[in-house]
Amino acid sequence: MYHAYGSLTDEDLAALYRCPAGPVLRANMVTSADGAASLDGASAGLSSAADRHVFALLRTLADVIVVGANTAREEGYKPVRIRELWRHLRSGRAPVPPIAVITGRADPGLSSSLLADESTIIITASRAGINRPNVIMAGSDSVDLGTAIAALRERGYEHILAEGGPGILGQLIAGGLLDELCLTIGPLLAGPGAPRVVTGSPLPKAVPMTLAHIIDDNGFLLCRYLVNN
């Protein structure tokens, strides 16, 4: 269960994060030791080289990457590039996974490259009034994530990676849609002000998880949790 990052090969990491058979929804988040999901509005200051390496691995293993429009704007999301991935693990699949952006706005304010990419999927509510190709309508007044995830699976995307933000993760947990949480805990204190990793309405009860493994990279803890069904 416990591993020192320096003792692991890329083959070891791929085995530790290998997706189980069948559909799975995995979230990947990073936090400070006191629970902040960002520093100065972005997650980069909470990350490490090991976290970024595993970030690329998780994207490689995914069929599609789901992200909220706020996070996509704040983090400057662009289409995934093949050079960013572990290419040998994409054999038999599309070279890169598409980005699916969740938004309730007619103008999600995304980067021009992400909007221009034909593979980008926009997940929205019918009243948002978005007129472009590759749109999933999920709900009428607001996005219903259960409907959205079902629609992605109908398109053949079994392994779904959610990259946030905290509000999206909160909705996935509340809807019983989350199967795994990959959480990197950075060894620093951010103090008050930043949102927690999960935000939104309180859950009716806590969701128990099992720790599959923990990887220590000089104090950065890369944890993989499995939601108990």
Query: What is the H/E string?
Result: EHEHEHEHEEHEHEEE
Strand line-up of the largest beta sheet:
1-9-10-8-2-7-3-4-5-6
Which architecture name of the domain at 2-89 and 158-227 does CATH use? Answer: 3-Layer(aba) Sandwich
Can you give the helix content as a percent range?
10-25%
Give the radius of gyration.
Answer: 17 Å
Helix segment tally: 6
The counted number of beta strands is 10
Overall shape: it is globular
N-to-C terminal Cα separation, in Å? 20 Å
What's the CATH class of the domain at 2-89 and 158-227, please? Alpha Beta
**CATH topology label of the domain at 2-89 and 158-227:** Dihydrofolate Reductase, subunit A
| Average pLDDT number | 93
> The biggest beta sheet, please?
10 strands, mixed
The oligomeric status of these chains comes to single chain
CATH superfamily of the domain at 2-89 and 158-227: Dihydrofolate Reductase, subunit A
Based on secondary structure, the structural category is alpha/beta
In percent, how much strand structure appears in the residues? 15-25%
Low-confidence stretches: none
Give an overview of the whole structure.
With 229 residues, the chain is α/β, with parallel strands linked by helices. It has a domain of 158 residues: Dihydrofolate Reductase, subunit A, CATH 3.40.430.10. 22% of the residues lie in helices and 24% in strands. The chain contains six helices and ten strands; from the N terminus they run E-H-E-H-E-H-E-H-E-E-H-E-H-E-E-E. Strands 1-9-10-8-2-7-3-4-5-6 form a ten-stranded mixed beta sheet, with helices on both faces. Strand 3, helix 3 and strand 4 form a beta-alpha-beta unit. The longest helix has 13 residues. The two termini are 20 Å apart. The mean pLDDT is 93.
